[in-house]
From TrEMBL, chain A:
Keywords: Cobalamin, Cobalt, Isomerase, Metal-binding. Its cofactor is adenosylcob(III)alamin. This is Methylmalonyl-CoA mutase. GO terms for molecular function: cobalamin binding; isomerase activity; metal ion binding. It comes from the Bacteria. Residues 5-133 form the B12-binding domain. PROSITE patterns: B12_BINDING. SUPFAM superfamilies: Cobalamin (vitamin B12)-binding domain. The lineage of its organism: Bacteria, Bacillati, Chloroflexota, Anaerolineae, Anaerolineales. The keyword Metal-binding applies. It holds the Pfam family B12-binding.
Automatic annotation (TrEMBL), chain B:
The keyword Chaperone applies. Belongs to the SIMIBI class G3E GTPase family. ArgK/MeaB subfamily. Keywords: Chaperone, GTP-binding, Hydrolase, Nucleotide-binding. GO terms for molecular function: GTP binding; GTPase activity. The keyword Acetylation does not apply. This is Methylmalonyl Co-A mutase-associated GTPase MeaB. It comes from Bellilinea caldifistulae. PANTHER family: LAO_AO TRANSPORT SYSTEM ATPASE, LYSINE/ARGININE/ORNITHINE TRANSPORT SYSTEM KINASE.
Length: 136, 340
């Protein structure tokens, strides 16, 4: 029986200590049948890239409420690419000003989810993106 | 073009991570790579860590890995791979793998590789592909492989057949002396750890566990002739969060490895593990082959008959296997015999 499970890393870079959002998303992805690796709080971009590599994940979800996204996200993307994981689907959730979203998308983030996004949308986006990649 | 197996042998962590995914997904490419890697396996010390949920297995694994990386006695650091298994949901197949939360101290160390695994429906505290995953990490050259099981209850004892050394982790307040003398998880301990030894009730728990150990454990098959000396499982109190008792625990782990090597138990465990692995593969493959050889609809028909209670589970089994049903007369005959 060959079964391909979607593996997702849910992680909180930076210094803010609020991981409720990250846990809600992790739980929703689990309930959608995915394998979710949860790292906990205060991860550096280096720690995130290392975990993504060892776990061979399809996607990385970054939950950021601290406002440091324009510093943290590019570093994570850079490290993933340096490790040969440029294909990994990176999405960001949290408090992200509307005006920063185009820049994040331009640097390679696949989706940005603000407060009030339904978890169903996150699940559907992720499934569609990874399905598409496997057929590409 | 280099193969995945060659990249793994050359030390590529990306290739190793990819390989583990292929193995977990039971992909033929993973199998092929394992064939190439297998001759390189058999050198690592496989250490199982099992025990109740919340006993502190992940914190203990974190500390042990640190201790192997920076030995207190000044011996050279050992490389460490960690396989941490958490349960899959039986309803959705999803899983939340949270063991890395307690292992953040290990990040940034190139001599450590952590992989989370979902149990994917297997019982016994491991995933079906855990043995192959550990074999791959062994082939990749790690000295020590720490295998953390699903938080186990009383019968998740698969780890005993996989690891060279099994640590059973308990915490105070998790059971009385009747729990301690039940067969099962405590029996498989090569080393018994009482973690959270600073909590209330620790003294009681230590006393109970010590009494249990003194009752002795039943001889294992392997102890018959192969092990001239008897290993008495030590009881080690630890406080993983404060790094207390870890050096002592490490000493016992190393003593157990030395004991296994000297007594021949290392080879005994290795051989019986390979036999178990073969038998499990065979079982899975035979079942699959047999199911695909069944005429279309026959299985469903018999299942329907069973579910409608027209036939018993045993009758269903015999008709699936194409065997004649048991004659009723045997039953009557034996009753008659009994009455006479």
């Amino acid at each position: 029986m060959t079964e391909r499970k979607i593996r997702v890393l849910i992680t909180k870079p930076g210094l803010d200590g609020h991981d409720r959002g990250a846990k809600v998303v992790a739980r929703a992805l689990r309930d959608a049948g995915m394998e979710v690796i949860y790292t906990g709080l205060r991860q550096t971009p280096e720690m995130i890239a290392e975990a993504a590599l060892q776990e061979d994940v399809d996607a990385v979800g970054l939950s950021i409420l601290s406002g440091a996204h324009m510093a943290l996200v590019p570093r994570v993307l850079e490290l993933l690419r340096a490790n040969g994981q440029g294909h990994v689907h990176v999405f960001v959730g949290g408090i992200i000003p509307e005006s920063d979203i185009p820049a994040l998308l331009a640097m390679g983030v696949r989706a940005v989810y603000g407060p009030g996004t339904s978890t169903q949308k996150v699940v559907e986006d992720l499934r569609a993106a990874i399905l598409q990649e496997n057929h590409a | 073009m280099t193969t995945l197996a060659e990249e793994v042998l050359a030390g590529s962590r990306l290739a190793l991570a990819r390989l583990l995914t292929l193995i977990e997904n039971e992909d033929p490419q993973g199998e092929a790579a394992l064939d190439r890697l297998f001759p390189h396996s058999g050198r690592a010390h496989w250490i199982g860590v099992t025990g109740s949920p919340g006993a502190g297995k992940s914190s203990l694994v974190n500390r042990l890995a640190q201790a192997f990386r920076r030995p207190a006695d000044g011996s050279p650091p050992r490389t460490v791979a960690i396989v941490a298994v958490d349960p899959s949901s039986p309803f959705t197949g999803g899983a939340l793998l949270g063991d890395r939360v307690r292992m953040r101290d290990l990040s940034g160390d190139p001599g450590v590789f952590i992989r989370s695994m979902a149990s994917r429906g297997a019982l016994g505290g491991l995933a079906r592909t855990t043995p192959a995953v550990v074999q791959a990490l062994d082939s990749a050259g790690f000295d020590i492989i720490l295998i953390e099981t699903v938080g186990a209850g009383q019968s998740e004892v698969e780890i005993a057949r996989l690891a060279h050394t099994v640590l059973v982790v308990e915490a105070p307040g998790m059971g009385d002396d009747i729990q301690a003398i039940k067969a099962g998880i405590l029996e498989i301990a090569d080393i018994l750890v009482l973690n959270k030894a600073d909590l209330p009730g620790a003294e009681n728990a230590l006393r109970t566990l010590r009494a249990m150990l003194e009752l002795g454990r039943p001889p294992h098959e392997e102890t018959a002739e192969s092990l001239p000396v008897v290993w008495r499982p030590p009881l080690v109190p630890t406080i993983a969060t404060q790094n207390e008792g870890i050096a002592e625990l490490l000493g016992h782990i190393q003593a157990h490895a030395a004991y296994l090597r000297q007594s021949g138990g290392w080879q005994v465990r290795d051989r019986s593990r390979l036999q178990t692995q073969l038998e499990e593969l065979l079982q899975t493959a035979l079942l699959k082959r047999w199911r695909s050889s069944l005429p279309e609809g026959q299985y469903q028909q018999i299942l329907t008959d069973l579910q409608a209670r027209r036939i018993s589970p045993y009758q269903a089994l015999h008709s699936l296997l194409g065997e004649p049903p048991l004659p009723q007369s045997i039953q009557r005959g034996s009753t008659a015999l009994f009455n006479a």
